Structures are given as structure tokens and as C-alpha cells.
Amino acid sequence: MTYGTKNEAAADAATANATATGAAAIGDTGLTRERVLAICRSNWEYRGIDDASLREMLGEFSHHLEEAAAAGRTPQDVVGPDVKAFAASWARAHTPLPLRVLRMGALIPFVVGSLLLLTHLIDRTLTLSIEAPRIAFYGALAAGTVTWEMRRGNLGFRGWILIGLAVLPVAALTGWLIGDDPLFHLPLWGTLLFLLPGLPYAIKDIRARKSEPSEG
Questions:
Q1: Do residues 134 and 178 touch, judged by C-beta distance below 8 A?
Q2: pTM score, whole prediction
Q3: Are 149 and 107 in contact, with CB atoms under 8 Å apart?
């Protein structure tokens, strides 16, 4: 073999090696199926997608990725160059903003009604005296809860406690400015009416949480 032939062979080998390395770099983006699902889950939780819808979306998308893998497509082929943008578009398609707003609108009275019902039980009374500080406290707590769930997902009991402590000054300030004389009296049946709009959503979320451990 001549010197020129050896050089050509070496150049061909170097070119082939560079091509293989480049192809591997393109294919190896670190976006495994589990990684893509984790990014999507985090994005959807941040958007305040409820538990039941979140599980349905993850199940559907996971099945979609499995079908793509069976067809020889990688997760990168499915989601494209921006996983977060894909997750956002999937969320808009499956849980449009009007539906999320409707859910939040139903949960506001549900949160207030839950607190009122708890007060009925603690005070052992069928009728509550509603004062301005109580209204301010429940209103601030409901607003904080809804804002958190819209931006960060499910609040949880600990989150309720933290927000409750944070809005206590609102009640104190309202009492100082307006006073704490009763404005009206709320019967138990009125409290139960507050629960009705959000009850279906609450039941759906509870069922989703209970089914999570068994589905692993």
C-alpha cells in the first residue's frame, strides 16, 4: 500500500469515526422516557393541574411514548427540542385554562365551606356568628389557597396551615379597623351550600390520591 493510499484510508477512518461520534452526540441527549415524564409532571404540577387530570395525562403520554418506542422513535423525536414547551402545549390541549378557572371557582367556596364546617364542629353549634375579621380571614385563606394551587399544584394540609398563619394578620387588621361585632348569622345548611360546587372536584382528587400507591 502506498503512502497516499494509507493517508486516504486514515482520512476515511477519521471521517467515519467523526460521523459516528456526531450521530451519537445527536442521539444521546439524555432525554430518557423517565426524564421526559418527570419534566412534564413538574411542569403540569406548576401549572396547578389537579391530581386526577395529572395522572390521566401522565398515563396517556406514557402510553404515547411506548408506542413511539415500538415504532423506533426516541422521546426526543416525540417532544422535539424543547420539552417544557411540549409539556405546556399538552397541558393546554388536555386541561384548557377555562376548565382550570372553573375548577378554581368551585374550590373557592369549597375551601371556605370546609373551614366554616370545621368551626361548626369545634363550637358545637348549628349557627355561626359571622364577623368582619372572620370574613377577611376566610377570604384571604381562600385566595391564597387558589393562587398556590394554580401556580404550584396541590396545597396539602401543611400548606393550609402555613397560609392560615400567614393571613392571620389580615383578620387582626380587619378587626382593628372595622370591629368584631356580628354582621349576620350563618346556619349549618348555608355552610353546606358552600361545599356543593367543589365537592365533585374534591372527590375526584381524593380518589386519584388513593389510587396512586396501588398503581406505583
A1: no
A2: 0.54
A3: yes
